[in-house]
Each structure stands twice: as C-alpha cells, then as structure tokens.
Amino acid sequence: MALDTTMLHRITRRAVAEIVSEEEFVKLLQEGKPLRLKMGFDPSRPDLTLGHVVGLRKLRQLQELGHQVILIVGDWTAQIGDPSGQSQTRPMLTAETVRENAQTYLRQFFRIVDRDKTQVVWQSEWFGAFTMADVIRLTSRFTVAQFLQREDFRKRFDAGRPIAITELLYPLLQAYDSVAIRSDVEFGGMDQKFNLLVGRELQSMMGQRPQQCFLVPLLVGTDGAVKMSKSLGNFIAVEEPPQDQYGKVMALPDSAIVHYYELVTDVPDEELAEIERALEQHKVNPMAHKKRLAYEVVKLLNLGSDEVARSAQEHFERTVQRGELPEEMPIVKVATDATRLSRVLVDAGLATSMGDARRLITQRAVEVNGVTATADELPKPLAEGDVIRVGKRRYARVVR
C-alpha cells in the first residue's frame, strides 16, 4: 500500500508519544521495503488489557502497509519481572506459570493484529542456548551507572530500597531480543523507553543497524487517574464479557473520554477535536459520546463485530439505564442446605474466591432479588428463580 501524507500523519502523530528517531523511521517507511516490527510481551499475568491494544493497533496499521510484525513472548524475562513503574522488587514466576499465561496472550494477540502477517517467537529460542560466558559478555557492554539513569531504578537506589541483580539483567535481555531478530523498529509504552534505547544501543555495538523506538502513550485506567493496570484493578480486559467491557467504558470519568477516543478508535482527528470542544464547553451530554466510545471499544475487542457491540449496548440500556433484568443470565445450582452467600457467589462465577465474595458483601455490592445483602449468612434458603446481582452488570439466576 502506498504511503500518502494522510497515512503518514495517522501513523506518526495519532496515539504516538515519541519516535526515536522519527526522521530515520519516516525515511525507512518511504523506502517501501518491508520492516521487521518488534513488540514484546511478558506473560507475567494471564490477560491483555485495552492498554496493550494501543501499541497493537499501530502494528496492525503497519501490517496493512506490508510490514512484518514479530511478537516476542518473553518467557525468560517474565520470570525476572520488569520493574517499570514498580516501587519494589517483583517476585519471580515459575516457568509453568509463564507458559500458562502465554497461551492466553497468543490467543488474544490476534484479536487485533493480522495472524497471517505475524511471526510469534519465544525468547527461549535463543536464551535456551545461552551460557554463563554469553551472559558475562552481554553485561560487560553496559555499566551500573548507565542503568541507574532509569527512573525507577534511581528512585529505589536513592531511597535505599532493594534492586535485585536479576532486575538489572531485564533491559539487557530485552535488548538482546532486538539483536536476535534483527529488529528494525521496536514498539512499547513510554515506561519502556529506557529498555528500547538499550536495544538500539546494543544493536549498534554488535554491528547491526540500530532499531527505531516507537513509543505509544500509556492509556489511563478506568479510574481516570493512573495508567491501566491489572494489579490496580482499573483495567478493561481484551477477553472479558462484552457487556462488562461496555459497562466499564460507560463508568469512565468524563475527563478520560477524549483520551480513549484518541488512543483506541479511528474517529477522524477533525471530529475528535469537535468532540473535545463540545465537552469542554458543556454543549453536549457526555453520555452520548461515552455510548459511542463504548460501542467502538467493544467492536474493536471482538473482531470488529457490530452484532456483539449492539448486544452489549442493549444490555447496558436495559439493565443500567432502565433498571430491568437481562434477558439471559448465568445459572447457579444451589443446594437446599446452602447457608453462605459467599459460596453461592463463587459457584456462580460472580466472585473469584471466598475472600473476594465476603469483600463484595461487606462493600454492599451484592443484591438478592433487589435487596442489598448485609451479611454472608443467608437469612433464608435461596429459592428457585431468585436473582443475584453483583455490582451493576453481573447477574445469576438460582436453580435447585
């Protein structure tokens, strides 16, 4: 596909934080030769979020121009844990946990990027043969002083908090990935800038053309305050139920609406500017723009399905706006002698554990037939057809 001015602007300006170096990157694009585009994911947790999708969308745009995407599954670095944005050393994961998490990643990647134009590789393909001598040679190329320039390392060092030697290896291993696959461009969030620049420098040291570093903004979480993160609970998961995805977007603070439109939709820049002006001048009800945004996000995360997006919107309008029960809901089988609501919530999939269930009850987030539950002990046995609701969007119907 030819690279015109409009497409170049879309790639280098929309949802872009920084490109190092932009001049070199644009020159490579204009040469028209297929580029090797690198993006790595550490399967430290089992699911991707909408925050990851910002970078994946950029990869998809470039795939459509004929470039090759190489997704690296960080099965080695995930066992170390990247400390980006963390205030303390992360626990190391087992190889088994990493493999299990990676399987979900591999399934979710292709909701956004084109499977036929993507190569998936595992770090163990090259690190599996690494010797101690290889590690020592790699570490000899950089100094501790260089790594203490990284903000999270420096803050922890200045505060006297621990930094594990393994954590210092993380940027080196990620950088070597670029050497191993001969990356032309690496993609990542702004919190990964140091790591991407280390890769660029290591390639130069080892006689390769240094990669360009394409940095995307960090998507703010559903709280509208800090970056989206599973550990903070302010996330929209790529594979969670569409009605939950829709509901979470609708719960965004108004201040995040334009930010989300810019990073995860294809709404034209001119129209986006009009939306921003209308919101700032209070000329429009934010609800209308949120509903459109929620529709676009659900469609994006569900393989472009308008049917799924419409269904999620109808569910929201029926259950939240009009306060009606959903037409379909999960069924939970309850024993006649059941006495604990927490057990019912776990069995229904409305809570992840007994502790999580008790927390929801304490927070008065659980209703039985429209009445808020105030205690774990059920005042009377649940009956056939009783409806349990957790929060605003999760329901289950009781059967014996």
Summarize the structure.
With 400 residues, this protein is of the alpha/beta class.
Secondary structure layout:
Layout: H1 5-12, E1 18-20, H2 22-31, E2 36-41, H3 50-63, E3 68-73, H4 77-80, H5 95-109, E4 118-122, H6 124-127, H7 132-139, H8 144-147, H9 151-158, H10 165-181, E5 185-189, H11 193-205, E6 212-216, H12 242-250, H13 257-264, H14 269-280, H15 286-301, H16 306-321, E7 331-333, H17 341-347, H18 354-362, E8 366-368, E9 371-372, E10 387-390, E11 394-399
Parallel strand pairs: 2-3, 2-5, 3-4, 5-6, 7-11
Antiparallel strand pairs: 1-6, 8-9, 8-10, 10-11
- The CATH topology annotation of the largest domain reads as Rossmann fold
Give the overall silhouette: globular
Radius of gyration: 24 Å
Question: Count the strands?
Answer: 11
Helix content: 40-55%
Q: Helix- and strand-based class?
A: alpha/beta
- Strand order within the widest sheet? 1-6-5-2-3-4
Count of DSSP-assigned helices: 18
CATH superfamily of the largest domain: HUPs
How many independent structural domains? Answer: 3
Order of secondary-structure elements:
HEHEHEHHEHHHHHEHEHHHHHEHHEEEE
Approximate strand percentage: 5-15%
Mean pLDDT: 88
Tell me about the largest β-sheet.
6 strands, mixed
Write down the CATH class of the largest domain. Answer: Alpha Beta
Q: Tell me what the CATH architecture of the largest domain is.
A: 3-Layer(aba) Sandwich
